[in-house]
Specification:
By secondary structure, the chain is mostly helical. It contains 9 helices and no strands. The radius of gyration is 22 Å and the shape is flat.
Length: 179
Amino acid sequence: MKKIKAKSEQENGLLLELRAKERIHIREEIFLLACFMEEWYWQNREMKNRREYRDPEYLLKRWEKIRHKILGGPGYGNGYLQDKINMSMENILVRFKEDLPFLRDTDYFAYSYFLAGFDNRMVAYLLGLESAKIASTVKGKLKYEFMISHSPHKFEYMAVLPHLPAWQLPIWQRNAIFA
């Protein structure tokens, strides 16, 4: 990009507009990190000598409150993540709920976490599942539901899910792919 020197507000309106957009973009990108860093600073610097901040249960509740605000979850509703996904992808999660209303909230949030790029272990942890294998099963169930669905968006839903390598697919799917 060609460097533009700022002389005055009237002469460089485009530059100032570009900088304002860039600033907004940077703030959007670091918003989530800023929430966690702010809480970390508050707990470890400002409040480290307060009695309640020495209680692990109290700290865990504070972290969970922030986590649900950012990542949403079953019983807590949408968080910043789901709102951002909907904004960026033409309301894909809204359409997902409309097209597959019979799926549980756990499946909805699992789909949003997989869409965001979280691995099976992290999805299992966020949803309170017993293991990463169960999260993988949820992902397989979602793919199956997409395939049998009559929704015009089913291939879009499948396309944004991370794909498993062929060696991790169930035998019946491997046979179908390589037949």
